[in-house]
Write a structure and sequence with these properties.
Length: about 300
């Protein structure tokens, strides 16, 4: 099985998915929740699908001088769209109570407040900064650890750099997924997203160390073997373990959680599901192939091909 022979196909698959998400982010921006940009999230549960219209809800908010208001509906556990999700600028408890009262009077329906979150702009800015610092520290720790752990072999720093590039790949996959989910399903990047992202980074690093460690072991056993064949052999040796560990345990559990865990956990479960799969995928099809690309200095051939075409 020549996995590395198709490495540019695997690179292309990742790049296409990431580019789709980045294009959405450039056009619409990252769908940040109140945790990161400040504001109020109000989730209301109705007893029937007889929900007020978007314009009617916005009209009520405009009476309180709220200009930027987003109104969405969501399905409950029975599949009926009885949930109203409203995002607006920051409001206090008293204003929330007045708005809920007006919405109840509009539909003659008793409303249950499922969720009410208000975050001021200063707190949101602090959360955003700390989130960026947390991801940055995690990335730095990965490079230092892998470089130290593999210090006994030639060009140990390459393993650290390829590990961090593959980890950035996983982060971009998760961010792109959130952007696509925000566009299609109204997802938002909140504190649960950050929890999922850091979890993905942790699992991703673990998978890459397993693959890299097998490459290190085989490099002492098969010293005369061509590096590309050695890496390909190492990948095949770890392939079954990766599939059994991820697909047969964690992935199936997350899939069940995404399908049957309810709407409040669905986004978190899907992000973890795809993110952890990406961590395993990048360990086999991104991180290890990058080592081979670096070892073979294949970028020189890229330039030669371009020069030949131009001539």
């Amino acid at each position: 099985m020549n996995i590395l022979g198709k490495r540019y196909l695997f690179f292309a698959i990742s790049i296409i998915f990431i580019l789709v998400g980045l294009v959405i982010i450039v056009i619409d921006g990252l769908p940040l929740a109140v945790d990161f940009k400040g504001g109020t999230l109000l989730e209301l549960q109705y007893s029937s699908p007889n929900l007020p219209g978007t314009e009617e809800v916005i009209a009520i908010y405009e009476d309180y001088n709220f200009e930027e208001v987003s109104v969405q509906t969501a399905a409950d556990t029975n599949g009926q769209r009885t949930i109203l999700v409203i995002r607006s600028p920051f409001m206090d408890e008293q204003v929330k109570g007045d708005i809920v009262t007006q919405l109840e009077a509009m539909t003659n329906d008793q409303i249950i407040v499922n969720q009410f979150e208000s975050v001021g702009p200063v707190i949101a800015e602090q959360v955003t900064q700390r989130a960026a610092v947390a991801v940055g520290i995690a990335a730095l720790a990965v490079v230092i650890y892998i470089t130290f752990a593999f210090r006994g072999i030639t060009n140990a720093f390459r393993y650290g750099i390829c590990g961090i590039l593959a980890m950035i790949h996983d982060v971009l996959i998760v961010v792109s997924l959130s952007a696509i989910g925000g566009k299609l399903f109204g997802w938002q990047v909140d504190s649960m997203f950050l929890t999922a992202l850091l979890t993905v980074i942790g699992f991703s690093v673990q998978d890459k160390i397993v693959v890299f460690d097998r490459i290190r072991e085989n490099s002492t056993i098969f010293r005369k073997l061509q590096f590309e064949k050695l890496v390909n052999h190492s990948i095949i040796q770890t392939l079954q373990r990766s599939i059994n560990t991820q697909l047969m345990t964690v992935e199936f559990m997350l899939l069940a959680l995404a399908l049957f865990g309810g709407i409040t956990l669905r986004e978190f479960a899907v992000i973890l599901l795809v993110g952890l799969f990406s961590g395993t995928y990048s360990s086999i099809f991104v991180a290890a192939p990058l080592l081979v690309v670096w070892e073979n200095k294949e970028w020189k051939n890229w330039f030669k091909k371009k020069e030949t075409v131009a001539g």
